[in-house]
Design brief:
single chain, alpha+beta, Arc Repressor Mutant, subunit A, Alpha-Beta Plaits, 2 domains, 4-stranded antiparallel sheet, 8 helices, 7 strands
């Protein structure tokens, strides 16, 4: 679904500076990352005809705030524009915009907790000292997701998390230092079951 707005009076100098990475900025970046297209048209008449087709997620953003945020993101090189054959302009995330989207999602990430499938998820990492800050950040994220530190640099959870771990590893660019294992049993797992309230 695409949203169209009139662009014929749009001028970057007309918009006041707004707080960097504010709520609207964040929503635009996450919507683009999710594959929800944002397109603009230079024709006010066309805009009037298709406004009813606007996707709900975009319609929730007040038009003036959307304009300001688009300009700010464009000037920050977080989004880029692509001109279509029909005269519309579609906005896409740049490489830096995609990285920022990862940051936003990382802070909101939570594991899905449901009926235990009898599997343990184990994250093992060996990150060199020169990347200590990244190592500490990874440890922080795992603890925030309620992993249990089984031993140094070994974290365990009973909850599905392969996509989340893949996401974190990609964000920190540490794939070569991290291993992800699924196991059906762990010795002394009774203690783990107690810690995760599985018995």
């Amino acid at each position: 679904m695409m949203i169209y707005y009139s662009m014929n009076k749009m001028n970057k100098s007309n918009f006041s500076k707004i707080e960097k990475h504010g709520v609207v900025h964040k929503k635009i970046i996450l919507l683009l990352q999710a594959g929800i297209a944002l397109s603009l048209t230079r024709s006010p008449r066309r805009y009037l005809k298709i406004i009813e087709e606007v996707a709900k997620n975009w319609r929730e953003i007040e038009k003036r705030a959307l304009y300001r945020a688009i300009v700010s993101l464009y000037k920050s090189q977080l989004i880029d524009q692509r001109t279509n054959k029909d005269g519309t302009i579609t906005f896409i995330l740049t490489k830096e915009g995609k990285k920022l989207a990862l940051t936003f999602n990382l802070e909101e990430m939570k594991l899905r907790k449901g009926v235990w499938d009898k599997k343990w998820r184990i994250v093992i990492f060996d990150i060199p000292e020169k990347l200590r800050k990244i190592r500490d950040s990874l440890r922080y994220q795992l603890k925030r997701l309620e992993f249990y530190e089984f031993q140094k640099s070994v974290f365990v959870t009973p909850f599905p998390c392969d996509k989340e771990i893949d996401y974190i590893v990609e964000f920190y660019n540490i794939r070569r230092f991290v291993r992800f294992i699924e196991a059906t049993s762990i010795d002394s797992e009774l203690d783990l079951k107690r810690k995760f309230n599985l018995i």
